[in-house]
Write a structure and sequence with these properties.
Strand content: 5-15%
Structural class: alpha+beta
Shape: flat
Distance between the termini: 104 Å
CATH topology of the domain at 30-114: GMP Synthetase, Chain A, domain 3
CATH architecture of the domain at 30-114: 2-Layer Sandwich
Helix content: 40-55%
Order of helices and strands: HHHHEEHE
Number of helices: 5
CATH class of the domain at 30-114: Alpha Beta
Largest sheet: 3 strands, mixed
C-alpha cells in the first residue's frame, strides 16, 4: 500500500510541477477586442443609437461620433467645413435638444473637429521622433 500511495503522490506532484502547455487559441485576442469594444461603447454613453436615429442621413454621411467625455462634451469628427456648418445649423434648430433627450449621460455641448481622423499611431514623446538640433550661430568678425 505504501508503494501505491507513494506512486499516486509522485504522480500528483509531477502534475503540479509540470508547466502547462501554452494557450494557442484566439480566446485571449477575442477577449481583448471585446473589452476594447465594450469600453468604446460605454465611452460614447449610448450616443451611437441616438445619433443614427436623430441625425438626418445627409449629415450622418459627413460626420461621425468620436467620443462623449464624462463632462458631457460630445466630440464629433466632420469631413469638411461644409459638413460642419450643416451640422451646426441642424444642432441649433433643435437637434441638440433632441440628442439631449435621448442620451443617457448629460450633454453640455458638441465639439466638432474637421478632418479625416487621427493617425493610427501617434509617436511617443522623445522616442520615435528625432530631436531637432538648434542651429549654430556664427560669430561675426568684429
Amino acid at each position: 500500500m505504501q508503494g501505491k500511495d507513494d506512486a499516486s503522490r509522485l504522480a500528483a506532484l509531477r502534475r503540479l510541477r509540470a508547466t502547462p502547455a501554452p494557450d494557442r487559441s484566439v480566446r485571449g485576442v477575442v477577449e481583448f477586442v471585446t473589452r476594447d469594444l465594450v469600453r468604446a461603447v460605454k465611452a460614447r454613453g449610448g450616443m451611437d443609437g441616438a445619433w443614427d436615429e436623430l441625425v438626418p442621413p445627409g449629415l450622418r454621411a459627413g460626420a461621425s461620433v468620436e467620443r462623449l467625455t464624462p463632462g458631457g462634451v460630445l466630440c464629433v469628427r466632420v469631413r469638411d467645413a461644409g459638413a460642419r456648418y450643416e451640422l451646426e445649423v441642424w444642432l441649433r434648430s433643435g437637434g441638440l435638444e433632441a440628442l439631449r433627450g435621448r442620451c443617457d449621460t448629460p450633454l453640455r455641448r458638441v465639439k466638432m473637429e474637421v478632418g479625416a481622423g487621427r493617425p493610427a499611431r501617434e509617436p511617443a514623446a522623445g522616442r520615435d521622433v528625432p530631436k531637432k538640433k538648434a542651429p549654430v550661430r556664427k560669430k561675426r568678425p568684429g
